[in-house]
Amino acid sequence: MKGDPDMVEIHDVWKSFDRGRIEVLRGVDLRVRRGETVALCGTSGCGKSTLLNVIAGLEYPESGSVRTAGRMVGSERERVDLLRHKVGFVFQLHHLMPDLTLEENCFVPVIAAGGKRDDAMRLLHELAEATGVSHCLKQRVRELSGGERQRGALVRSLMNEPELLLGDEPTGALDEANREKVFAILLDLVRSKGRTLVMATHDLDLAKRCDRVLRMRDGHILDAA
Ligand SMILES: Nc1ncnc2c1ncn2[C@@H]1O[C@H](COP(=O)(O)OP(=O)(O)OP(=O)(O)O)[C@@H](O)[C@H]1O
């Protein structure tokens, strides 16, 4: 929307590991508009996951500024608040709890955010229908197929109605048919709800279906216009 601040505004961000021995982000600048879908590409180890973690407030950079969903990412309290209310995360491996049912897993972020049970139940059924997992909500995750787990993880990531969805190879562990299916659902859900997506991927075909493809190399984003 005109006049709205960008969803992600990153300026001159530096991040290293191992006491500075591994320099990963070297002066990254990035702006992502609200409602945009962006794919982040680059060779393994170039820093895609690190950048997603910095955007979400899971990693804290040595220097530079990070503003996510209109908030400066600073104190621990701000970062927790961001993760509870503004940001959803979906990973290559689903990270669902195997001994809980899919429904129970999906309620975890709702409980953490103090959401209302009835509203959450309505949203759960809407998302489960859209992703095709209604039939297995009451099953334990360990009993589900890989595609069902990943679609379930997508549902869970959207249960706190995040303005920004971050994906770290969200379909990377699936076979080609499931990858295509889950990605189409993901993109459709993000766009139909006016959400913003930033996704790391090695799959150029999937990346090209986002509004913008950014390439990372040597700790920078090459085309962060
Ligand atoms: N907690 C950590 N401690 C030390 N080194 C780390 C840590 N996290 C990441 N790194 C290193 O930082 C570099 C960037 O890692 P990152 O996971 O961000 O890359 P990536 O582009 O997402 O890779 P991939 O495509 O393989 O997932 C790698 O060299 C990695 O080993």
UniProtKB/TrEMBL annotation:
Domain ABC transporter: 8-225
Top-level division of the source organism's lineage: Bacteria
Record keywords: ATP-binding, Nucleotide-binding, Transport
One Pfam family matching this protein: ABC_tran
Any one Gene Ontology molecular-function term assigned to this protein's record: ATP binding
PROSITE patterns the record matches: ABC_TRANSPORTER_2
Protein name: ABC transporter ATP-binding protein
